[in-house]
Design brief:
Structural class: alpha/beta
CATH architecture of the largest domain: 3-Layer(aba) Sandwich
Helix content: 40-55%
CATH superfamily of the largest domain: Resolvase, N-terminal catalytic domain
Largest sheet: 5 strands, mixed
CATH topology of the largest domain: Rossmann fold
Radius of gyration: 33 Å
Strand order of the largest sheet: 2-1-3-4-5
Strand content: 15-25%
């Protein structure tokens, strides 16, 4: 009688967080018990060479450490048999599972057994007839779980709960509430400086270079340094990172999430979403940057897009457009670097097709004409006889309004926090973490706190309504303050220009059309 073949077995066990309510039945311990029982009752000579365990890894792909080690041992012929409790423990990806079971394992002479699905590739067991259906079902389960998780995550984000593992640069998670952001005072000044540099005319690339030269840890490295690790690229800033921080409304107190999404439930690759698809919840935490500064920075960033990083930004860079083709008018230098001139960028790129004309003109002369026209219109806009008195009164009102608005925002944040605390103690009561007496005591305390907050909100809103001028008057006063600031500067900067000018159009016949942000008188 021939000796039975000895099979060198690798037992594979996997548990994913996606298993949800089935955690107990699918636990590693449970899988091990099932496989041990199978080995004892098998008529084949199955010798376990090794046990491979991936605890906490999804079945959506095969990027798992224990599975990789198993395949190394397969390739080195240490094992010739792979056993799992069922198909889903090996994986749930329809394509990947089929690749292994129907191609890679047979080509390598590997026997595969899925005990509870009655699959054994050596004996052509009945379960193999329904293999494709079972693989498809497991894949559909994975897709369904992925959809449910996405819905839950999206719902939490829409409620203003922060779900990141660390705070966005400049913030950190509140130790008392991991779903809330608080300011990270260690780097607050870096964030403020970043925005101020844009106001001074710096581009994201120039800011990145400046921070890199000064040895300031970049956002990802800063997070790692806080955990005690350091890399060779800790002080290298990426322009794209700077730009993404500068356009993030989180810095004005509006929690912004959902800026990226995975291609699908099987892929780890993420794609950036357009701004209109971001999930933004207003007034969820303390702002580092005021809204006016943020809006001005957004305007300047859009006008800096065509700026060459190696050159100093010109005062009107990004404000100039071609009247005929609506493309940007670029500002260039002559070969001897002595003269600056304007040219239609669309013409430069496609001159041989004659899609537009050069629109060439001397930049210094153009800038002088624009500034002279701006200054004249600014002087006409204000009334010299009572301007100082008007501005002083208006500024006091605007300052008071800003203080009260901020106070109101903070009160509403506190109000939302109290409601969250009430929800939390209710959950604790349902889960028997606290008894009914403790629940009632806490509920009374939080309701009293809510009553006080609501009273303060009402009072603050009343004060705001009393000092809030009509929109037209308010806008005029604010614009007058900006104009006066401009008139006080001999050499205005781009921030001031951005507050007053929307766009400048240059025509083929050298006609200049200036569109102001205030009504020209």
């Amino acid at each position: 009688m021939k000796n039975k073949k000895i099979y060198k077995v690798g037992l594979y066990l996997r548990l994913s967080r996606d298993d949800g309510d089935n955690v107990e039945s699918q636990s590693i311990t449970n899988q091990r018990i099932v496989l041990d029982s199978y080995l004892k009752n098998s008529k084949d000579q199955l010798i376990v060479v090794n046990e491979y365990v991936d605890d906490g890894y999804s079945g959506s792909n095969f990027e798992r450490p224990a599975w990789k080690q198993l395949m190394i041992d397969v390739n080195n012929k240490k094992i010739d048999t792979v056993i799992t409790k069922d198909l889903s423990r090996m994986g749930r990806d329809y394509i990947g599972m089929g690749q292994y079971i129907e191609r890679e394992f047979p080509e390598k002479g590997i026997r595969y057994i899925a005990k509870e699905d009655d699959i054994d590739t050596l004996y052509e067991t009945p379960g193999l007839e329904y293999l494709q259906f079972k693989l498809m079902f497991n894949d559909l389960y994975l897709k369904d779980v992925s959809k449910k998780i996405r819905r839950v995550v999206s719902s939490k984000k829409e409620k203003g709960e922060y779900l990141g593992w660390k705070g966005i640069y400049g913030y950190k998670r509140d130790s008392n509430n991991k779903h809330k952001l608080i300011v990270d005072e260690e780097v607050r000044h870096i964030v403020e400086r970043m925005f101020n540099l844009v106001l001074e005319g710096y581009s994201p690339r120039q800011i990145a270079n400046k921070f890199s030269e000064e040895g300031i840890p970049n956002p990802s490295s800063y997070a790692n340094l806080k955990r005690g690790t350091k890399t060779s690229a800790s002080y290298l800033w990426c322009p794209r990172t700077v730009e993404e921080l500068l356009i993030n409304p989180t810095y004005i107190g509006n929690l912004t999430q959902g800026k990226r999404k995975k291609l699908n439930y099987k892929s780890k690759k993420e794609v950036r979403l357009p701004k209109e698809d971001w999930i933004i919840v207003e007034n969820t935490h303390e702002a580092i940057i005021d809204k006016k500064t943020f809006e001005t920075v957004q305007d300047l960033l859009s006008k800096n897009k065509h700026k060459k990083s190696s050159r100093k930004v010109e005062l009107l860079q990004g404000f100039l457009k071609c009247k005929e083709c609506n493309h940007v008018i670029s500002i260039n230098r002559s070969r001897d670097n002595k003269r600056k001139y304007c040219t239609c960028s669309f013409y430069l790129a496609h001159s041989k097709f004659k899609l537009c004309t050069p629109h060439s003109c001397n930049y210094e002369k153009l800038e002088k004409l624009v500034l002279d026209d701006l200054r004249e219109n600014c002087k006409r806009y204000v009334d010299p006889s009572n301007f100082e008195e008007m501005v002083t009164k208006a500024k006091n009102k605007i300052d008071s309004k800003a203080i009260l608005t901020n106070q109101l925002e903070q009160l509403k944040i506190k109000e939302r926090q109290v409601y969250l605390y009430i929800d939390k103690i209710y959950e604790d009561k349902l889960n028997d973490i606290i008894d009914i007496d403790m629940y009632n005591r806490n509920l009374i305390k939080y309701k009293d706190e809510l009553k006080d907050i609501n009273k303060r909100i009402t009072e603050t809103e009343k004060q705001l309504s009393m000092i809030n001028p009509a929109n037209e008057k308010k806008e005029r006063v604010e614009m007058m303050l900006k104009i006066q600031k401009y008139l006080n500067f001999e050499n205005p900067n781009r921030t001031l220009i951005s507050n007053l000018i929307d766009m400048i159009y240059l025509s083929q016949d050298k006609t200049i059309e200036i569109y102001y942000k205030f009504k020209v008188l």
